[in-house]
Known about the structure:
By secondary structure, this protein is of the alpha+beta class. It has helices spanning 16-31, 66-74, 76-86; strands at 2-10, 40-46, 57-63, 90-99.
Amino acid sequence: xxxxxxxxxxxxxxxxxxxxxxxxxxxxxxxxxxxxxxxxxxxxxxxxxxxxxxxxxxxxxxxxxxxxxxxxxxxxxxxxxxxxxxxxxxxxxxxxxxxx
Length: 100
């Protein structure tokens, strides 16, 4: 199994209300990919970090193998969510992929 974890920070220009709406859209969009992409085992988005955190949104996803992760990256459903709900609103992204 391969884990794919991403941490994002939203752009500073958004109000707290806007950030709440954006985070909800990211969560709905990414978690909605479950069952649509071959090899995607599980996908969860956390949008409620503790005050000690230094990021706004976390993606925690699991794939059957590295090939499945590569397929996810270019899958049209994932690309649509990434381009429509994530990339326009984030200022930074950190990713770690590893075998579990």
